[in-house]
Amino acid sequence: GPPVSVVSAIGNAARNGVLMKGGEHLERAGKIDLVAFDKTGTLTRGETAVADVTGFGHDADHVLRIAAIAERRSEHHLGSAIREAAERRSATRTDGGTVVTGTSLPDPDDFDVVPGKGVIAHHDGRELVVGNRALLDDRGIPVPDAAFVYVREREERGETAVHVALDGDVIGAVALRDELREAAPGVVRALRDAGVETVMLTGDNERTARAVAGEVGIDTVHAELLPEEKQTVIEAFRADGHVVAMVGDGINDAPSLATADVGIAMGAAGTDTAIETADMALMADGLERIPYAIGLSKAARWNVA
Ligand code: ADP
Ligand code: MG
Predict the structure, then answer these.
(1) What is the tens place of the pLDDT at every residue in 191-237?
(2) Mutate to test the pocket of ligand 1, among 43, 45, 117 (most ligand atoms within 8 A of CB)
(3) Which of these, 22, 111, 129, 177, has the minimum number of CB atoms within 10 Å of its CB?
(4) pLDDT at residue 266, as a whole number
């Protein structure tokens, strides 16, 4: 059987919110010299909310409502945040002294998701497009200077800004924010102090990713990645001789969690697929357990030797 020190280390880890599937993972975890973090839901809380809405010659409430109709059937975190904000705004608007509540959003006639770019819907004979620059370029929708400036400013703050277009005109934009997990900067610092390199991998745009990386103290950023590209980046780090841990939460992270030497799935917020694929699972808001888990495995190796 495995050495007693490994068994007790796994037991200690479990009591501290880190689940490990076996002693061999503990052994590998002790050699980690690079930790790759997913951004959304891992370094951030995964609770995206609308931070600001702007209209270019249009009322901001109208822009938000058009965006919400387009996102009515969206399962993306940006879409649900836009719907919630629109519902909250209409619920607090007063009409002749009475608060109008329960204003429900109409269902669009059709709805298409463009993965990694946004959504396209039709409603009342009009075309609604909500998404990033790439989506507008694909559709031949021109981006006004005001939109370009607005999006850049919000991205520099670490927010994600999406355009709202009606019948081929950009009528406004919505900025969304996902707060950092409180523990994130301390975790990055502790890893650095232990001589472990940290990198960020994300599907979000380069400017937003760099702003968030700056807030947590991560120097290396790989942005605008599709899920399979995250996996390729991990493979490249391994080919360079690194022993790599990947920390992720979403279903999209499963391939990169499996490719890393040690896959670490965030607990309660994580999906079952991510947890099944990973070698270790951190319970609940357990981001701060990462330096502990790595330190523990280093200690276990000493005990075994
Ligand atoms: P993330 O990894 O941040 O969840 P995705 O890869 O799903 O991002 O999407 C990348 C980008 O595509 C988003 O930052 C956004 O600009 C755009 N996008 C994706 N889905 C939507 C949506 N439902 N509504 C608007 N924009 C979207
Ligand atoms: Mg994520």
Answers:
(1) 999 899 999 999 889 999 999 999 999 989 999 998 789 999 999 99
(2) 117
(3) 22
(4) 77
Domain boundary among 141, 162, 177: 177
Cα of 248 to ligand 2 centre, how many Å? 6
Residues noted as catalytic:
38
- Residue 59 sits in a domain whose CATH number is 3.40.1110.10
- Are 140 and 74 within one domain? yes
User: pLDDT band at 17, cuts 50/70/90?
Assistant: low
Rounded to 5°, angle at Cα 234 from 74 and 277: 60
What proportions of the chain, in percent to the nearest 5, are helix, strand and coil? Answer: 45, 25, 30
CB of residue 204 inside a 6 A radius of ligand 1: yes
- List b or e across 73-89, with b for residues whose CB sees 16 or more CB atoms inside 10 angstroms: bbeebbbebbbebbbeb
Identify whether residues 279 and 259 lie together within a single domain.
Answer: yes
Nearest CA among 128, 134, 131, 138 for reference residue 168: 128
Q: Of 177, 206, 233, which residue is a domain's last? A: 177
Q: Pick 254 or 200 by higher pLDDT.
A: 200
- Ligand 2 centroid to Cα of residue 97, in Å, is 43
- Which ligand 1 atom sits nearest the alpha carbon of residue 40? 3
- The CATH number given to whatever domain includes residue 199 is 3.40.50.1000
Residue 63: pLDDT over 80: yes
For the CA of 226, the closest atom of ligand 1 is 6
Pick the residue whose CA is nearest to atom 5 on ligand 1: 116
Name the residue type at position 137: D
Query: Is residue 230 lining ligand 1, measured as CB closer than 6 Å?
Result: no
Q: What is the pLDDT of residues 168-188, one digit of tens each?
A: 999 999 999 999 999 999 999
d(CA 221, ligand 2 centre) in Å: 15
